[in-house]
Design brief:
By secondary structure, this protein is α/β, with parallel strands linked by helices. The protein has 16 helices and 16 strands. A six-stranded mixed sheet has the order 6-7-8-3-9-10, with helices on both faces. A four-stranded antiparallel sheet has the order 2-1-4-5, covered by helices on one side. The longest helix is centred in the middle third of the chain and has 17 residues.
């Protein structure tokens, strides 16, 4: 067994919601990062992955459980742990050289030694010749290389990467990922272990020795898949494709029928997060699913390729379709249901009516809003009223997203209407007239 570097035991973390109540972001997280391994962490947005990384980096404390680095309790930032963020976070007025030197300067390293180590990191990451350039003069990929060099110059034992490639275009992200892996395999990196947070399933399988599936509400490790394949890995290889399919299956487990959402076996509740899926894309996926070569059933990785959706986008859409009974998910495959077939073959007005019935039956938040409108004499209620309700169980971002999705779905299904100018939700005009 390789030597443990970071160990987490029963780690929990809560944050205060807008109303002052505690909301659990992490609960009962057990994890060990060993020397010589790359671990990928996959999960939906808002599941607590970034919070977990910040705890491991010593940037924020855990509320419960134990965090150990090299067998000792971690109470704050550790010099041997570095983090790379999704945003490049470069100082625009500093050159590449000065941006890379910043961490060393904060540690009190002498100017000559700072310059030498920064130059070595810049050369290692493939930026030689750009030492004097300002961030605005660099491409996105080059700016992220500066961010990685700034982490590597500290010679960390552990490198934590939080969506480090997601802000880049596909080809640039793949090239940077391949370069990092080549440096890792050659032993040129000072780093002894890496933890990579990602939304990209293919990226996780191509990089990692282990893939962890993170559940949300609160965040916790739901599944672990070992990746016993030598690097470099061929993305079209049968073993790689099988693993990608397996990860899709794990991430959609529990969303196979209406009333189920990924990560939960219980029926969707009023204050739960909603899949971030717009109606147009949901309809587009259903239509593609009905066509050749799928004929009603598709492997999710193949469907992602054909629809040109990201893994994260397709996972949200597939969860939404399963929630509404228009599709079923089973071990990384999606199959259209008879109701979904009827939906695809219906005209626009029939689609809207069917969609409205399904969201009222399977989305408690939409049913609650509709009931409130029916009970109010005016048939009007402010959006903020429901936003305050959601803040009891969700953070600000998730509450806003859940209500935004509910309003879009409710409007499309003609369950209610929304005035974007004054933020008021109201009954459809013809129904208000009938009541009056």
């Amino acid at each position: 067994m390789a030597t443990p570097i970071i160990e987490l035991k029963s780690v929990g973390k809560s944050f205060r919601a807008a109303d002052g109540t505690a909301r659990a972001a992490l609960e009962g997280v057990d994890f060990t990062l060993h020397e010589g391994e790359i671990v990928a962490l996959l999960g939906q947005s808002g599941s607590g992955k970034s919070t977990l990384l910040r705890i491991m980096a010593g940037l924020i404390p855990a509320d419960g459980g134990d965090v150990h680095y090299r067998g000792m309790p971690l109470y704050g930032p550790a010099r041997s742990i570095a983090m790379v963020f999704q945003s490049f976070a470069l100082f625009p007025w500093l050159t590449v050289q000065k941006n890379v030197e910043l961490g060393l300067e904060a540690q009190g390293v002498a100017p000559e030694e700072r310059a030498r180590r920064a130059q070595a990191a810049i050369e290692l990451i493939g930026l030689s010749g750009f030492e004097g350039a300002l961030p605005r003069e660099l491409s996105g990929g080059m700016r992220q290389r500066v961010g990685i060099a700034r982490a590597l110059v500290l010679e960390p034992e552990v490198l934590l990467m939080d969506e480090a490639f997601s802000a880049l275009d596909v080809l640039t992200g793949e090239k940077l990922r391949e370069d990092i892996l080549a440096l890792w395999e050659s032993g040129q990196l000072p780093t002894k272990a890496m933890l990579v947070v990602s939304h990209n399933i293919e990226e996780a399988v191509m990089m990692a020795d282990r893939v962890l599936i993170f559940a949300s509400g609160p965040g916790r490790i739901r599944a672990e898949l070992p990746v016993a394949l030598a690097r470099p890995r061929a993305v079209e290889g049968s073993d790689v494709r099988a693993l990608i399919d397996d990860v899709y299956g794990q991430m959609t487990a529990g969303a196979a029928r209406p009333g189920r959402v990924a990560e939960k076996e219980a029926k969707l509740q009023l204050g739960d997060r909603l899949p971030e899926a717009d109606v147009a894309r949901m309809e587009g996926v259903l239509e593609v699913l009905m066509e050749e070569p799928f004929k009603g059933r598709a492997d999710l990785p193949k469907l992602a390729e054909d629809t040109e959706l990201t893994d994260n986008e397709l996972l949200h859409i597939s969860s939404a379709l399963a929630l509404l009974g228009l599709a079923q998910l089973d071990r990384g495959d999606m199959a259209i249901t008879p109701l979904g077939e009827h939906y695809v073959n219906a005209n626009n007005s029939e689609r809207q009516a069917l969609f409205g019935r399904q969201v009222l039956e399977h989305v408690p938040l939409i049913a609650y809003i509709r009931h409130g409108l029916e009970q109010d004499p005016s048939g009007d209620l402010p959006r903020d009223l429901f936003l305050k309700l959601l803040r009891f169980t969700l953070n600000e971002t998730d509450a806003a997203q859940a209500l935004r999705t509910a309003i879009e779905w409710g409007r499309y299904g003609d369950v209610f209407e929304y005035n974007f100018n004054n933020g008021v939700i109201h009954l459809p005009d013809e129904e208000k007239l009938m009541e009056e």
